Amino acid sequence: MTLPPTADIVIIGAGIAGLGAARELEARGAGRIVVVERDYPGAGATGRNVARIRRMQLTEELSRVAMACQDKYERMGGELGSNVLFYRLGYAWILYEQDEVERMRDVVAMHERLGIRSALLSPDETLHHLPVFTGGDPVAGSVLSDDAIVHHDAVVWAHLDHLGSSVSVHPHTNVTSIERDGSRVRAVVTDRGRIEAPIVLNATDGWSTQVNAMADVRMPNRPRRREVLVTAPLRRTIEAAVTFYRPAEGWFNQTLRGEVVMGAVDPDEPVGVNQGSSWAFLRRTAELMTRKAPALRDVTVIRQWAGMYDITPDHQPIVGPTTQLEGWWQAVGWSGRGMLLAPFLTELLAEHLVSGKAPEMLRMFLPDRFSPTTEAEGGQADYYARYSPGGASASG
Known about the structure:
Layout: E1 9-12, H1 16-27, E2 33-36, E3 52-53, H2 60-80, E4 91-95, H3 98-114, E5 118-121, H4 123-129, E6 141-145, E7 148-149, H5 152-162, E8 167-170, E9 175-181, E10 184-190, E11 193-196, E12 199-202, H6 208-214, E13 222-231, E14 241-244, E15 250-254, E16 260-264, H7 279-292, E17 301-311, E18 318-321, E19 328-332, H8 338-355
Parallel strand pairs: 1-2, 1-12, 2-8, 4-14, 12-19
Antiparallel strand pairs: 3-7, 4-6, 5-6, 9-10, 10-11, 13-16, 13-17, 14-15, 15-16, 18-19
């Protein structure tokens, strides 16, 4: 498909953020929209994650946002006319220390006020519901909810199939430079041609720092690798998607086909784009999982891969326009929660762009909460420290 020379809006990146924004903007009559993608749609973080869609968050503000995001998924199949494989597997935080349990009492009470179904379970109740942890490191309890998972490929292709004639998607198109006209954006230059447009949306997540630099825009989000592995199918017995944060961050869940998908985070993962997986990850994950869930020690790993978390200092995304460059919009910095947050927040972004006014729920994510000199996230081994007094908030 030939690249058009002009457009009303150019979107860089055809992951869930870029495709979600294209769909929402088209629905609001925003004009001719061109989406350019360096690889194929969903090739970045969107196609390299396990797509947990959960309302259960650690703060009330973020729980309210997550509730709206999950509601978006509840109606997405009907809106797009396609099954996005959204299903309620359940979700569990596994707790290993008493301070985690005490912290969660207030969190569960907050969930109850909001109408989120979560429960604080005792050690015995945890092992009854999740016997995979029997014989492993002693658990102090857990928080269990009825949260959901979606299939990322189904979401991508449902969006692609639903786009109308005013949107054109151009895969295998590399952005080489951004043209400015003084204080505003003028054009996107690619290896397949130049597109002049008054509005450009950077929706490239892990590559967004590079794209922002082309426009001389500075944001403090930085990419860090996150690795994943999957096992051969087992009899389905794990009735929740699991996460734990102490003493090291790890997670696993079982797919509808019986595979176990899992990972363990390296707190010293360096900044930079790296989608190659490693032996060190396999060893780290195997050691952590067999210690906590001995039932998994004999599983057969059949493949592993990696994707990017584009992480901000407050672990919340950057969504909206920036005063650094007129016409330059952002939908980046998802900090590992793009599949949850992007469909709903790009709906709010489209409302903002068309109406000229930011919806209330979008304001906490606007780019100009950071100055051009804000330092990037420096890494933090303890997940809960992001929520401590004086610490940054997090999206999940």
